[in-house]
Amino acid sequence: GESVGLHLPTLSVQEGDNSIINCAYSNSASDYFIWYKQESGKGPQFIIDIRSNMDKRQGQRVTVLLNKTVKHLSLQIAATQPGDSAVYFCAENISGNTGKLIFGQGTTLQVKP
Amino acid sequence: EAQVTQNPRYLITVTGKKLTVTCSQNMNHEYMSWYRQDPGLGLRQIYYSMNVEVTDKGDVPEGYKVSRKEKRNFPLILESPSPNQTSLYFCASSLLKGGEQFFGPGTRLTVL
Fold it and tell me: From the list B4, B58, B100, which residue is nearest A49 (CB)?
């Protein structure tokens, strides 16, 4: 069945270090992927997205890498800051489908000062 | 400010007492959706709407109803709430199906 999973439930990093959050997806038909950040008491907030015709996309301090061969997605955060502490979700979508996003379980990023 | 709003943000109710959670977006988005978030289960889609008067079931629609009479509003209705509907609910919208979805702040519902 469809599933999107994250490799680690919790990731702890030192402030200023780079963070890498991983996600594995199972549906090879998925062609659109999004990373969301969810802070305590708030709704998921869009970080960055990537379509399946790309393997890398960069934003401000964030980079998403897509490896379709092994169905793997990663989010890299450069120079991690305390404000980056949150739960991060990857989500997948299939074009032509219902528009439903299939979410992974989430990784909690803890940034140590 | 472009946003998705939900009301109420918190609600404690009793089994069987009908309730409605409102959702409104001011971005003229066609696609709207409701999700519930539960520990260990992540976010799961309840219902979605591709446009006015067009709604359909998501993965966990049992016990819920929705309506889409206007483009901006997408209320979630629990006709007879039960304790297993205790959850954190999110409304989301996107310009088109399959695009980036913007989420509301969430409604924490407790059914006793």
Answer: B100
